[in-house]
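Work Package 4 report. The design task specified in the project plan requires that, given a folded chain encoded as structure tokens, an amino acid be chosen for each position. We show below one input record used in the internal validation round.
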């Protein structure tokens, strides 16, 4: 129950509290004060999806999700992210009592983690692996900044956090965890952060889909699925999504694949998102955290949430690089919120 150190401070984001605060203020200041006629934060937007790369890459995109996030009634915040440091099946809980930031420490909600642990459904993150993991940590300074804007300078008033890694799982396993989380999603005093980047394109990610002879083919398919470059199962509508449907650039292929994933998330149908990821093989690293929360929201929708609630709305999409050549690489970032 010690403190998880801010291991990526000074490299992935600024370590000096003043410089970090200024950087986050700049990112948030670049986001409009209102979206779709709604003053930000969006009332009731208790769930967001945001990226977790270094702030120089993904910070401006993440700010769109955080500016939409409504923390006014929050008394705890779940943070769900994927595991990059070890293979994980199912979900894992932190064993730390605090998460360090350059601003100060956020307290882990021991009562909630104990309650979840007692279900027998969760493993524990190995402490060293948790310290090395960035998917949760990259959201903590943003969250602190939004706490500060919502509750003032007294950190004793800041809600505790519930850090959870969500690993591999079948469609039914995701639905099962979604049902488990649904009671917490239903709680109006609980907010949710889902950590995910979108398409990772390049040989370093073993995923290089491009357009060839009328279909999308993965240049790295022979390494993964056999001796030939099988077309991906996805069939996007190029006529509306590409500037040149006959010869789209690689970065347009990336955008189309990400748009298919985002459309599936916005549909609110967990099975649609799961199928889209399976068909396109899109390297959305937080696909399981997204899937678990979608399944939970879907369970709530069956109980009746009201018009326009329980579905995500994407408000920003960016890429680290507009890929044109096979030896290049790119990571995509997207931000969304859902009103419950």
């Amino acid at each position: 129950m010690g403190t998880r150190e801010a291991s990526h401070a000074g490299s992935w984001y600024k370590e000096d509290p003043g410089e970090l605060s200024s950087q986050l203020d700049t990112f948030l200041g670049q986001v409009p004060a209102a979206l779709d006629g709604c003053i930000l934060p969006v009332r009731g937007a208790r769930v967001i999806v945001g990226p977790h790369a270094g702030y120089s890459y993904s910070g401006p995109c993440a700010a769109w999700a955080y500016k939409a996030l409504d923390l006014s009634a929050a008394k705890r915040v779940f943070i769900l992210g994927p595991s990059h440091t070890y293979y994980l099946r199912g979900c894992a809980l932190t064993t730390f009592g605090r998460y360090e930031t350059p601003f100060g420490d956020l307290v882990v909600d021991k009562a909630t983690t104990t309650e979840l642990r007692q279900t027998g459904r969760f493993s524990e993150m190995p402490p060293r692996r948790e310290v090395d993991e960035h998917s949760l940590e990259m959201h903590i300074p943003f969250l602190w900044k939004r706490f500060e804007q919502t509750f003032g300078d007294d950190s004793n008033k800041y809600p505790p956090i519930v850090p959870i890694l969500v690993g591999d799982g079948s469609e039914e396993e995701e639905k099962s965890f979604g049902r488990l989380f649904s009671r917490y999603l239903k709680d109006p005093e609980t907010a949710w952060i889902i950590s995910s980047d979108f398409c990772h394109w390049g040989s370093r990610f073993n995923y290089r889909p491009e357009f060839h002879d009328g279909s999308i083919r993965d240049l790295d398919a022979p390494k993964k699925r056999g001796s030939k470059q099988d077309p991906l199962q996805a069939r996007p509508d190029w006529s509306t999504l590409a500037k040149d449907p006959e010869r789209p650039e690689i970065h347009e292929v990336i955008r189309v694949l990400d748009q298919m994933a985002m459309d599936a998330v916005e549909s609110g149908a967990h099975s649609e998102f799961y199928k889209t990821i399976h068909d396109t093989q899109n390297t959305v690293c937080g696909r399981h955290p997204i899937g678990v929360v979608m399944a939970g929201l879907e369970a709530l929708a069956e109980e009746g949430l009201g018009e326009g609630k329980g579905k995500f709305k994407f408000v920003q999409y960016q890429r680290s690089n507009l890929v044109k050549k096979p030896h290049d690489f790119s990571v995509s970032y997207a931000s969304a919120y859902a009103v419950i």
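The chain has one domain: 3-202+284-339. Validation will be extended to a larger panel in the next phase.
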